[in-house]
Amino acid sequence: MDLAIRESTTPEGLRDIHVIAARTMLKIIKGKQDAAVLGEHLSVQGEKLTITLIQPMYHESTRISPRSMANPHGEDALRYKLDLLEDWHASHPGVEPRLLVVDDGCDGNGDQEQPSGVVAQRIIDAWQAEAPRPIATHVIYLADAIEKSTPLLPSGITSTRDSVKGGSVLYGMAYATQAWSTPEGNRHILVDSDADLSVHPAQLPSLIRPIIEKEGTVMTAASRREKDSVRLIGESRDGRGIFFIDVWQQLLPTLAVCITDTNRGFKAVDANFVPTLLEKVTDRKFPYQIEVLLIGTREGTEAVRPVAVSYIDSEALSTQGGEDVVQTYLNQAQGLLAMARRHSEPYNEQLASLIDELAIHPNGEQIWSEAEQRYTNVATFLASLA
């Protein structure tokens, strides 16, 4: 990645990149080991496991396609994941993975041949045409669900603009559990996964294993912030992330006891818990993934477990920054505050008052953006305004 190249220009950077690569390989190896453990567990219990990988997409046609001179940020991510799911099933037939792509409503920049869902379907069709494939796939469109007023659609979604990832993921969860049948008797786990390869998908078994083995665990969340996590993130983006973590911890202290990293799109949930999420999650934008975890923690102290992962940032085409930003961090802070109030969290009143004030301040976005760049915690930011 470009980021790795830039950071490897010094001897220290070279050592860091080598360490990150080695530790990432260990995470991949652990994923294969966990796949074997899950396969053995299913064999002993005489059970089968259906895994639905839900992949929401908004302007992702570039990253899911192969890299080329014309597509320098291509990762061929979709085919890579399909191959991995097929290999997992071949090694452990008791695991039955399937892929659900949810187009969140992007328009392909006006090109009707380029929306993410259309590109994804072409890639899937080409992959399936190469050989008989045991992996079931569906591509669905949030826009179609809105047009048809399907009962699976999350409430409050009347336009694709009402969803910033959250609406499409919740629609995908409803579709995977209510419209796409699983074999009778199969255990079913859903995984919410980003479209890129920031988290190497070979770590998927490690994400799922605690739900299978730990009684009372209904959900797991990939974490870049555990002691044995591995991460490569640009300095400015990492600093902004640290500030945002402190923001949500100040607003949602109940969740902070259980989870250190909420914004990673790599989470697994037991299908039996999905009806509760569909009933209680009301945010349809980026903070939905935090509300999902918050609701999970209400099930018990070990209902939601963090899973340390290797994370290599894929920032170039992010929809959380630059000119294509779809929801600013101040917007997300407003969503978190509304969430805290809905769920009666004992939030930081001073921070809440500031968010309310900046929401209507003519320079609110600029003030918040500068705080993200200058501070790593809320207390210092608040003190600077005193």
Regarding quaternary structure, what we see is: single chain
> What is the CATH topology?
Spore Coat Polysaccharide Biosynthesis Protein SpsA, Chain A
Tally of discrete structural domains: 1
Named at the architecture level, the CATH assignment is: Alpha-Beta Complex
Which sheet architecture does the biggest sheet show? 7 strands, mixed
Give a count of the beta strands, DSSP E runs of length 2 or more: 9
Radius of gyration: 21 Å
Which runs of at least 5 residues are low in confidence (pLDDT < 50)? 1-14, 320-325
The CATH class name reads: Alpha Beta
Shape: globular
Give the full name of the CATH homologous superfamily: Spore Coat Polysaccharide Biosynthesis Protein SpsA, Chain A
H/E topology pattern: HHEHEHEHHEHEEHHEHHEEHHHH
Strand order of the largest sheet: 3-2-1-4-7-5-8
Our estimate of the beta-strand percent is 5-15%
Overview of this structure, please?
A seven-stranded mixed beta sheet has the order 3-2-1-4-7-5-8, with helices on both faces. α4 (116-130) links the parallel β2 and β3 (136-141). It has 386 residues and is of the alpha/beta class. The longest helix has 35 residues, at 11-45. The protein has one domain (2-234, 260-311): Spore Coat Polysaccharide Biosynthesis Protein SpsA, Chain A, CATH 3.90.550. It has helices at 2-7, 11-45, 77-91, 116-130, 142-148, 166-179, 204-213, 235-251, 253-256, 274-280, 288-297, 329-342, 349-360, 364-374, 378-385; strands spanning 49-57, 95-103, 136-141, 187-193, 219-223, 230-232, 266-270, 304-308, 310-312. It contains 15 helices and nine strands.
